[in-house]
Design a protein that fits this description.
There is one protein chain. This protein has five helices and two strands, in the order ββααααα. The chain has one domain. Strands 1-2 form a two-stranded antiparallel ribbon. The chain is mainly alpha-helical.
């Protein structure tokens, strides 16, 4: 489990990413988490950057908060109403970025794309 504490809607909240996060997200949305993470990465890296689907973003944040607090036998300090009515746009972006980073850490995804190795002999392959 990867965890990170952030401030959202005026509350200190610990988010977690593990298989529990994926199951919680699936229960909330009836969708797999991986396509949404990909969608979110594309949206945040677009020019200009923008937020992906707001409903899915909120469910992802809720799922990651629930995962942490359920693992500790506690109630989550945030709920959907906090994110819908008391949250600043920047806070959603920070929470989403935090979850994406934890996802990458959990799955050991390198931050930079690996560079292609040049074939031995210094010649490029045909049709490469």
């Amino acid at each position: 489990m990867k965890t990170k504490e952030i401030k959202i809607a005026g509350k200190d909240v610990t988010l977690a990413y593990c298989f529990g996060s994926e199951v919680s997200y699936k229960l909330l949305t009836d969708e797999e988490i991986h396509p949404f993470i990909t969608e979110a990465i594309v949206a945040l890296n677009a020019q200009p950057p923008h937020m992906p689907d707001l409903r899915k973003t909120i469910f992802l944040i809720i799922a990651c908060a629930m995962t942490y607090y359920e693992s500790k036998g506690q109630n989550s300090p945030i709920e959907d109403k906090d994110l819908l009515y008391r949250c600043e746009p920047e806070e959603l972006g920070i929470a989403l970025g935090t979850i994406i980073n934890m996802y990458a850490e959990f799955y050991h995804i390198p931050k930079d794309e690996p560079k292609d190795k040049e074939p031995k002999g210094g010649k490029k392959r045909k049709n490469a």
